[in-house]
Structures are given as C-alpha cells and as structure tokens.
Design a protein that fits this description.
The protein is of the alpha+beta class. The protein folds into two domains: about 220 residues, PmbA/TldD fold, CATH 3.30.2290.10; about 220 residues, no CATH class.
C-alpha cells in the first residue's frame, strides 16, 4: 500500500520543525517568516507492448522557507530536514533578504484572514496496491486496447500512479495547518493504422480515491475507440463555423479566463480582461463558481498557500466578472483584498445548460467538434487565439468524418461572449470542472 507511515507522528514532527524554523528566523533578525514542509511517497508503473517499461518507488521531502526583513524577502529550500540543514537554509534566506530591494507589497497575508476552523475534506485515501497489482492493471488496460481492433498496431504504453503526501504550512502569525492527501491515476495510449493512415490517442482516469477510478479495461477500450475513430482524417477549406469543445479541452478555455483574471496579469496590465470586475464577459446565463470545500475532490483545500481561509464564491455571475484570483501580494498591488488564491484556484464549477453530449451535437448542427489541441498560440494581452486542432466534421448534429491538420482561431473575448451552450457531460478530473462548450462561430483553417 502506498501510504505515509504514522501520519499523526509525522504531522507532529513537521509542526515542531516548522516552529523551530520560525523561531530560528526570528532569532536571526527576521520580522516575520513562513515555511512549508512536505513529504510524499509514491509508486509509478509503465508497461509497453506487454512488457514492464518502468517500475519506480519514490519518496520525496522538502522545506521551503521565506523570511521578511520589513519589506525585503528571501527564500531558500532544503531536501534535508535535519535541524542543522534547516538552520543553514534559514541563514541563506536571511542573507538573500538583506541584499534584495524593498518591495512595499511584500509580507505575510493579514493575521485576521488565517484559517481558524479547518474542515476535514476527506482527501487522504491510500491505495492498497503493490507493484505486481499495479503492473497487472496497466497490462489489463493495454491488452484491452490492443485486442479491441486489428487496426491497433502499436502502443505508447499504459501507466498506473499512486501518491500519498502530507504538508505543513506555518507562519509568524501563529498559524499552522496540516494537509494530507492522495492522488491516483491510470492511463493508456495506443497507435492505430489502416493503409496509409496512422493515428494515436489516449484515455485516463484520475481521483484522490482508488474507488473513484474507472476500470482498467474501460480505460483501454476508450483509448482504442478514440484512436480508431480518428483514422483517415481529412483537412477542410477555411471557413467560419460553430465549434464544440469536448469537456477535457473546454476546461482549457476556463483556464484562459483564470489566467486573464489572475492578480499578476492585472497589475502587470498583461490581460485582455483588464479591470473586468462588474463587466459582462459571457452571455448572462453563464455561472462560474469556486467551491474549495468539496469533500474527496482533488482541487479542494481549507486554506491557500498563505494560510488564508478559503470560501465559496461566484467568479462569474449572470455572465459578469465578480472578482479576480488574488494572493496577498497581488491584492496589495491592486489595492484589493486577497481571494485566498495564493497557489492557484480551487475547484471551479461551470454551470451547465442541461444538455447532454448528443444534444450538444444537435445544437452544434453543422460545424467542428474539437477533440485535440496542438501548440499554444494564445496572446493573453490581446486575447487572440489560434491553435492547431483535430476532431470531427459534424452535419445536422451527426458526426461525419475525422478532421486533422486544421487550426481553430478567434479572439477569447468573442469566444467567451459567443458561448451558445454548456453540456452536462462534466469532466471531473481536475480543478476546473466543465462539460463540453459550444461556441457559435470561429475561423477554422485547413487546406
């Protein structure tokens, strides 16, 4: 089983080490300090063409220390958690801080914002799995894929990963918090060939709970199905058509919104959505909510990377921006309050329009279903968007044939406002949870 030995003892040990680090920083003249201590253990297995390609047990640990001398800051890290090494790391951070320039926005988040009552989000679920069982699961996924269709001629392999970790964050406000979590995954990728057409595709499952994973044979079957249906792809002439993003790609559109609304993009004036709070960015039926406290969900957390208590909030309400994604530094730069997003967003849930995938295809009518994106041609300052893509041509709500070597292009402002529907086929494998997204018009370039 991949789990941490004696979590309670490890938690107590790390809490004691964190206090030692903070006291050492204070003794060396720091006005304040913060520290993160982490330890994890994991198992990774990869098989390819029926043989074991990789078997790895891994253990990692480390400390990250930030000290402040007024508005000067210094950071140092150590993978050696002995007290002598940690004291050396504190000294290094203090030395760095003394040579850095003043930044009036540096410092800990406000003491009154620290999390007080920390809920148990039930994120720790170790997997009773040994190397032989992990290999068997990976082989089952790959064999299912290879046996699915004679056109599956090669494999990029199947993998199983399991990880268990514990982290402690503490700062000079007296805040100390402990988080333990697990994440597990199973994936498979295969290659299909028929005549002169060759394609590759994949599928995967991800959860903090072993019981939350899809079955290995289902992963292999999905990988093979997706590969075979892409054979004999065509290009197309350039035109403007509706575009439907499958859920695993639709989350990327929400990710672009998060980037544009991040504090750093706002204070650097490097966003196509500058000063967007209160402005309509989507149609008025679009709702996006951050829900940090969902139990047994990978993106959940009781506090952010600065110890600030997280809480549920609307990011988009009735199509309008309600707030940015801020840590304390970016909040001070903008004259605003932190939104407890130091270290990134928590669970973002995009409300669906009540349509399943078949209904989304009917709403698309005639246009392009995008199932793969290639490259990253996105200008976050202007919102210009252009990416290589593959997918399917759809007519009258029915998939006609696969597409390859095409480009989908537009401007993110227009794309957001042009969202026609959001599917209820929600992909829950990540911090951003959304169904498929239908955009009313984009330029699709091919031949």
């Amino acid at each position: 089983m991949i789990e941490l030995d004696n979590r309670n003892a490890l938690s107590a040990e790390f809490t004691e080490l964190a206090e030692f680090i903070l006291q050492t920083a204070q003794a060396k003249g720091a006005s304040s300090a913060e520290v993160g201590l982490d330890k994890g253990t994991g198992l990774s297995v990869e098989v390819r063409m029926g043989a074991v390609d990789k078997l790895q047990y891994h253990r990692d640990q480390g400390a990250s220390i930030t000290v402040y001398f007024g508005h000067k800051s210094g950071n140092a890290s150590s993978s050696d958690l002995s007290r002598r090494s940690l004291e050396d790391a504190v000294e290094a951070a203090c030395r760095i801080a003394r040579y850095t320039s003043e930044d009036e926005f540096n410092g800990l988040a406000a003491a009154e914002l620290m999390a007080q009552d920390i809920p148990d989000l039930d994120l720790y679920h170790p997997w009773d799995l040994n190397a032989e069982q992990a290999i068997e699961l990976a082989l089952q996924a790959e064999n299912t894929a290879r046996d699915y269709d004679a056109r599956i001629v090669n494999s990029d392999g199947a993998s199983v990963d399991s990880y268990a970790g514990l982290g402690v964050y503490a700062n000079s406000h007296g805040f100390s918090g402990v988080i333990s979590n697990t994440h597990h995954s199973l994936s498979c990728a295969v290659v299909g060939k028929e005549n002169d057409s060759m394609q590759r595709d994949y599928w995967y499952t991800l959860s903090c709970m072993p019981d939350g994973l899809e079955q290995a044979h289902h992963i292999g079957q999905r990988a093979a199905e997706r590969t075979v249906r892409r054979l004999h792809g065509r290009s197309m002439s350039t035109r403007e058509v509706p575009v439907l993003y499958v859920p695993e790609l639709a989350r990327g559109l929400v990710g672009h919104l998060v980037s544009a609304l991040s504090g750093s993009a706002q204070y650097r004036k490097a966003s196509f959505l500058l000063d967007a709070v209160g402005q309509p960015v989507f149609p008025d039926y679009v709702q996006l909510r951050e829900e940090p406290h969902l139990p047994r969900t990978l993106g959940s957390r009781a506090y952010d990377a600065e110890g600030v208590a997280t809480k549920a909030r609307d990011v988009i309400r009735d199509g309008q921006v309600q707030g940015y994604f801020l840590g304390s530094y970016s909040a001070r730069k903008l004259g605003l309050a932190t939104t407890a997003n130091a270290g990134g967003c928590s669970n973002l849930l995009l409300q669906d329009s009540g349509l399943d995938f078949d209904a989304m295809l009917q709403a698309l009518g005639t246009g392009v279903l995008v199932t793969e994106l290639i490259g990253s041609g996105i200008n976050m300052i202007t919102g210009d968007y252009s990416r290589g893509a593959a997918g399917f041509w759809v007519e009258n709500g029915e998939i006609q044939y696969p597409l390859e070597e095409i480009t989908v292009a537009g401007n993110l402002k227009d794309m957001f406002m042009g969202i026609r529907a959001i599917g209820n086929d929600i992909d829950q494998r990540g911090r951003v949870q959304t169904g498929s997204i239908l955009i009313d018009r984009m330029t699709v370039a091919g031949e």
